[in-house]
């Protein structure tokens, strides 16, 4: 009898009670292992510090309240933007109110369903480039697939946004600077925990400030060049052109270069970092579940011919299910933080104005009361009643409601396509002595990389 594959790796939980100082140290290092195991069963938990109260809400009714029913009463928390401001500035990811609404009115049309068909050739070209980079490395030696996934996802972003491949000098520079920034920048800095006045420095490290400034300078050069092309009528019809030329339906105003730098920064962070995280974990999960790997490879080899077009995405059903399950187990953004605009009752608690509301896809997606076999890898779960119920009420990798990620549809084309094309050409083998350890910084990555062996498949 074949032994069942091990459960996918999960970070260790901390003890139920630790000192505030210990908790803050754990939180800065990795927000996942800083949480107690009871949160995988709790509907809600309250945390008190000398400076603020926070409430983690795992009850689907509370998640809907915050994201769908009363989103204006739960704006994005300013504590989260403290650590992201050097890179993201005033981007749509961190703004609230009228500023956010204006930004979404301009951005959303570029990611409407019909636009995805236009971006498909660029996505496929990036996937082919990834396969070409992997081919010489399919020799049985370990390959760090998290880096390869990041490289490919960054390539997708630059091809679809600016019509340039990752080999372009500016694109390559942004990619490598971002990797330095990611390694240095924790998801939260000191100002997220302490009520510092606006004039006080935020204690970002020198490397964080330098890499963020360099990335923004490079993005500014791309957006300024595109603005000049738009002015002369020579700009390609890609996402950057669509966003920069689309007027706000209410005011007629467009993004200027400075505003566009902020938006491109979050497109790069959200559009490449999150997709790379999900793709890398999906590849690892398939490497540790050979039966699912072979089924997906068979689907990919049957459906992905040399000239497959956008319609193939409707036939890559297993690739989509695997990618969706990977994002359930390893949601790229593990926690989202809102802030109460007014007092609100949460189950049996009264949360005051200014309280921090934590929505945790990480815990919601693995909640023991909501999912069958919550820690197991099972792409077929979404065909069951429990899985369908989970999708409706306990699955938020892209958030939900008005603030749902505008690139969600984009990601659900890119991820399954890259996954299927890799599995069409390569067989993946996990390394028993190099089990990845999930850790959350900007996204859920492995603390020690995701190392796999590759070998070429025959037709």
Report on the structure:
With 459 residues, the protein is an alpha+beta fold. Helices cover 48% and strands 9% of the residues. It contains 15 helices and eleven strands. α11 packs antiparallel against α12 (317-329). It is globular and about 60 Å long. It starts with 19 loop residues before the first helix and ends with a strand. The relative contact order is 0.17. Mean pLDDT is 88; it is low at 196-202.
What fraction, in percent, of the residue positions are helical? 40-55%
Q: Categorize the overall geometry.
A: globular
SSE-based structural type? alpha+beta
Number of strands: 11
Biggest sheet, spatial arrangement of strands: 1-2-7-4
| Rg | 22 Å
Task: Give the SSE order as H and E letters.
Answer: HEEHHHHEHHHHHHHEEEEHHHEEEE
Main β-sheet, in a few words? 4 strands, mixed
Our estimate of the beta-strand percent is 5-15%
Provide mean pLDDT, rounded.
88
Spans of at least 5 consecutive residues with low confidence: 196-202
Q: How many DSSP H or I helices? A: 15
Distance between the termini: 29 Å
């Amino acid at each position: 009898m074949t032994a069942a594959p091990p459960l996918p790796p999960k970070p260790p939980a901390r003890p139920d009670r630790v000192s505030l100082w210990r908790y803050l140290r754990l939180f800065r290092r990795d927000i996942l292992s800083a949480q107690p195991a009871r949160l995988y069963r709790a509907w809600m938990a309250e945390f008190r510090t000398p400076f603020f109260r926070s409430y983690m809400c795992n009850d689907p009714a509370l998640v809907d309240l915050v994201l769908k029913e009363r989103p204006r009463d739960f704006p994005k928390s300013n504590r989260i933007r403290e650590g992201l401001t050097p890179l993201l500035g005033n981007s749509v990811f961190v703004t609230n109110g009228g500023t956010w609404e204006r930004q979404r009115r301009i951005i959303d049309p570029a990611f409407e369903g019909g636009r995805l068909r236009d971006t498909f050739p660029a996505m496929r070209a990036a996937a082919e480039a990834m396969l070409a980079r992997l081919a010489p490395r399919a020799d049985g030696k370990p390959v760090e697939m998290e880096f390869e996934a990041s490289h490919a996802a960054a390539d997708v972003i630059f091809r679809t946004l600016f019509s340039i491949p990752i080999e372009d000098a500016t694109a390559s520079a942004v990619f490598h600077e971002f990797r330095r920034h990611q390694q240095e920048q924790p998801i939260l800095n000191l100002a997220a925990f302490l009520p510092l006045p606006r004039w006080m420095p935020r204690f970002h490290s020198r490397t964080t400030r330098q890499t963020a400034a360099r990335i923004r300078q490079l993005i500014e050069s791309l957006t300024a060049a595109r603005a000049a092309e738009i002015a002369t009528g020579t700009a390609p019809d890609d996402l950057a052109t669509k966003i920069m030329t689309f007027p706000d339906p209410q005011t007629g105003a467009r993004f200027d270069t400075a505003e566009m730098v902020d938006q491109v920064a979050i497109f790069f962070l959200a559009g490449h970092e999150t997709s790379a995280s999900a793709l890398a974990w999906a590849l690892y999960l398939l490497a540790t579940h050979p039966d699912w790997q072979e089924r997906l490879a068979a689907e990919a080899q049957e459906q992905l011919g040399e000239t497959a077009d956008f319609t193939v995405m409707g036939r890559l059903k297993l690739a989509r299910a695997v990618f969706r399950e990977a994002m359930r187990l390893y949601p790229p953004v593990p926690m989202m933080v809102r802030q109460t605009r007014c007092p609100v009752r949460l189950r049996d608690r009264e949360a005051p104005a200014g309280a921090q509301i934590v929505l945790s896809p990480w815990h919601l997606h693995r909640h023991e009361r909501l999912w069958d076999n919550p820690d197991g890898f099972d792409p077929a779960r979404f065909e069951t009643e429990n899985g369908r119920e989970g999708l409706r009420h306990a699955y938020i990798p892209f958030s939900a409601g008005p603030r749902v990620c505008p690139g969600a549809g984009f990601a659900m084309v890119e991820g399954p396509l890259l996954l299927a094309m890799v599995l069409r050409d390569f067989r993946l083998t996990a390394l028993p002595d190099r089990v990845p350890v999930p850790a959350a910084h900007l996204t859920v990555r492995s603390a020690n990389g995701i190392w796999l062996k590759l070998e070429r498949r025959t037709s």
